[in-house]
Amino acid sequence: MSIPENRQPVIVLVRPQLGENIGKAARAMLNFGLIELRLVTPRDGWPNPSAGPAAAGADIVLEKAQVFESLAEAVADCAHVYATTVRKRGVTKPVLTPELAAKDTITAPGRSAFVFGPERSGLETEDVALARAIVTVPINPEFGSLNLAQAVILCAYEWSKHADLVQPTVEEILPPAPQEDFEGMFEQLCGMLEPRGYFEPESRAAHNRRTLRSVLTKAGWNHLEVRTLRGVLSVLRRRPGSKPGDPRD
Does residue 168 have a cis bond before it (omega within 30 degrees)? Predict the structure, then answer.
């Protein structure tokens, strides 16, 4: 599902302290398809020369960033505002995970915003009071400290699950090999084990073959894996020092 830009959530950084952290947050945003960044009274002003290098190429996010004097102004056009915090703020609000909040931004009419507080202290109670809901994650109670980019990426990633982003190329998963290929490998292995007494005593031979077959079929070998293992078995069958095709094998 392709999501129009004007339906994508806005990322709002309230009183961010370091340009580097703004840049890292922009990088996290663009990784997952978000480009609208709003800043509320950044401590060191804007633009900030430290943001660009930290953004690592997410220049479009920084170029489009808007600056506001208050959080209320920054989210004035947003119908759904989510305050991110891991601390109790003394306000009664619905509490959502990033996953649930991201789903809301897709289905609820109107624009949405994820709001993040300053690096040192997070959002103030007055900031949270403007929000529709609180977004938080389970976190170590003895160390509830996420940096700004980490917090942004949690929400951006959950939102990206609903966007039509392209999955990075992964290794192709091949289907299991035909049974004929597996049987050839199995018989080759059994043919090597039998003269070495693996299936003795005779009374246990059938049972041992079934057990061995069961172990090998669990792997779900594809045809390349079967071919590789058969090559290994062929090498193991040779006498030390012999070459492929040596009549002494």
Answer: no
Question: Which domains, from first to last, does the chain contain?
Answer: 5-160 (3.40.1280.10), 179-237 (no CATH)
Name the nearest CA neighbour of 37 among 60, 4, 69, 70: 60
State pTM to two decimals: 0.68
pLDDT digits (tens, 9 = 90+) for 133-183: 999 988 887 777 788 999 999 999 999 988 766 666 556 667 778 888 889
Name residue 18's amino acid.
L
Task: Answer whether 93's CB lies under 8 Å from 132's CB.
Answer: yes
Q: For residue 109, what is the DSSP state? A: S
Chain segment 77-123, per-residue pLDDT in tens = 999 999 998 766 667 888 999 999 999 998 888 899 999 999 888 89
Q: With beta carbons less than 8 A apart as the criterion, state whether 51 and 20 touch.
A: yes
- Angle subtended at Cα 190 by Cα 184 and Cα 193, rounded to the nearest 5 degrees: 145
Residues 6+ apart with CB under 8 A from 2: 163, 164
Distance CA 112, CA 110 (A): 7
